Every structure is written in structure tokens, then in C-alpha cells.
Amino acid sequence: MFTGIIEELGTITSLQRDKENLDITVRANFTSELKIDQSVAHNGVCLTVVAIDHDRYTVTAIKETLDKTNLNDLDEGNIVNLERGMKIGDRLDGHIVQGHVDQTATCTAISEADGSWYFTFSYDPVLSNITIEKGSITVNGVSLTVVNSKKNEFSVAIIPFTYEHTNFNTLRVGTIVNLEFDVIGKYVKRITELG
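The structure assignment produced for this chain is given below.
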């Protein structure tokens, strides 16, 4: 379980294919605090630590994860948003994030708004995911509020702190991002479909 509040940025130092899996090695400041079998969200994707070496650790993404996320698009040197699992008793500063990416989206517009930025994303309607105005959305692991909800498209407003402390500052029009839709909204949608 995560909150969508990014702890730090990590740098991809190695990508190794192992059959259909991808071993991803990341350099991060908090590596010394990690342990094997711990969960860490990478651009919103919950992955398990399988090896630790000084300031670097390795996680493995299986084919199912690679097919549903933007992890296949990673290159050595890329910056990823990192968050360790939530501690029981801590404040929930973002929203409830599972680290289970629902689908990817494409950045279709970026506009500066006198000290903040608006990012617009479009996503494939095939999975029937939805956003609502002022609802929660997770983009590359970042907990955000939807400011403009349309069918298969939404926008978010990014404050300077988030822009500087996440990989939002590397996004361009055409960049593929990971989306996790609000878990409560997903349950409500499912109940209404069945009822």
C-alpha cells in the first residue's frame, strides 16, 4: 500500500532481460534502508526488491507487468519516481494507492500557468476506466487531483514542488505514463455495473 507521495527520484543503472522478465537496477539514496523482499513503487508500479548492492538495488518485472505499464520504455539513465510502502500509523498525505497500474496513458498537452503546469493525458477506453472532477488519480506513482475530466481524457495541475521533485519535469507531449485509477471509484463502478 502506498500514498502517491514520491519519496525520491531514482536513476536506472541497468536493465537486464531474463527470458520474459526484466531485472531493473536503480540507484537511490534510501537503498541502505531497504531489505530483500520489500516493496517499492517505481513510477507507481509495486515491485519487490530482489538484490541490494551498496547504493543500488534490483527489482524484477514480469511479462504481465511489462505489458500493462511503461516499464518496457525505460532506458539506462532514466529517472523514476520512487516510494516505499506506507507505514501503519503514518499520515495518509496522498490517497490510497495499491501500486497496481490499471493502464498507460499518453501525455497530449502541457501548458504553463504562471507558476504551475497543466498536464493532459488521454487513455484507451477499452478498459472503461473513468475519472471524475476533483477525484484522485495516480500518474507515474504521483497522487494527484483531476482538474478536468472528459471521456478517456483528464488534466492535472502540478505545483512547483511536485514538478521539481518528481519526473513530471521530464515529461513531454507523447510520453507514456502509468495510471492507477482511484480504488474506491473502481469498486463503485463495478458495483453499479453489476447492479
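Interim note for the steering committee: The mean pLDDT is 93. The radius of gyration is 16 Å.
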